[in-house]
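tool=predict chain=A
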Amino acid sequence: MTKSAEVSASPRFFPGLESLRGFAALLVALYHVSWRSHFAYSNFVRNGALMVDFFFILSGFVLFHSYGAKLGTLARSLRFMAIRFGRLYPLHLASLAAFVLIECAKWTAIHWRLAAVAGVPFHPNTPGALIANLLLIHGLGIYDQPTWNNPSWSISVEFYIYALFALVVSLLPRKLPLLAVSGALASVGLVISWKAAGGLDSTAKYGFFRGLLGFFCGVILWHVYNALRGRTPPRILGAMNLVLGAALAIFLTVLHRGLGDFIAIPLFIAIVLITALHDAVRPNPLDWRGVVWLGTISYSVYMVHPVVIWCFEFVLQYVLKLPRPDYYAMNIWTGDAVVILYSAVVLAVSAWTFRHIEDRFRRKIRRAVENRPHQK
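tool=predict ok
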């Protein structure tokens, strides 16, 4: 093997997977754009909601890689949950606060007859839903639809799946029982998602089961990766990556929701597996600094883009006075330019929130947890 294709034994960090996470988050941000543009009409973007399932699979894979051998006692599980809380909650709270300010501004504008506003204040973003969001239980079937910061339903689901994951790994340290229970949990998620929504279209109501399906597929996938790593020639892995990427792009372009949703799951699984195996090969295009940076801020992109969308839509409707039946009545090429501007703003805001909120408080909470005396 040449120096240009060296393979490490078992990377602690997967730059390629981080880069894919970034692309997936950006696709979700484009999926929620509603004004008239070529992006809004593209099937590829309109199927961007499936990236949430990619996130679930990726989380199961990466977390088992990082923590599968570290859990085993109640104290370690609690430390794990505290670290995950520090990873998710600060930015969730900040984005929630932004929407509270938006709802208060809408109420003030209507109450004092200052201006027309986008939507009825505090509907469906009720005070009760706010409490549920603060407790991170808003994605557990309490509401039929997402509330406040809409994408955060999946953050609620992930947090409680983390707890289930810690319990399962702690109680079942042996490989075969762990794989059997993971398979059973993924199957439950598959069956209920199919029965409830006929596809991967469930969010706040049955989204927990959608999360079960993806996350525990990721746990199983790590064991497949562990068995295969270092055994496949780098050139074959690179070719498989290209083929799978093209297959996914074509699939999302022609996909119709329903049964086709579940075909995306095996594709996501294959892409995560091949990318993880290929991630140990250097050089790797997914290692490029700018691409990995997009993955680094991906959680911020996922959480802050609804706030940016609200601001853009307010300007389009109530400042520029563009009518909105289904899409804003603007030239489609102008809409494309607005989408590009929106994407740039999302990335800029996300870079700021990552540095000053997400990463800052994640580090503080992690240090506080790690500085506590270890208990076995």
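Residues 1-10 have pLDDT under 50 and may be disordered. Residues 38-292 form one domain.
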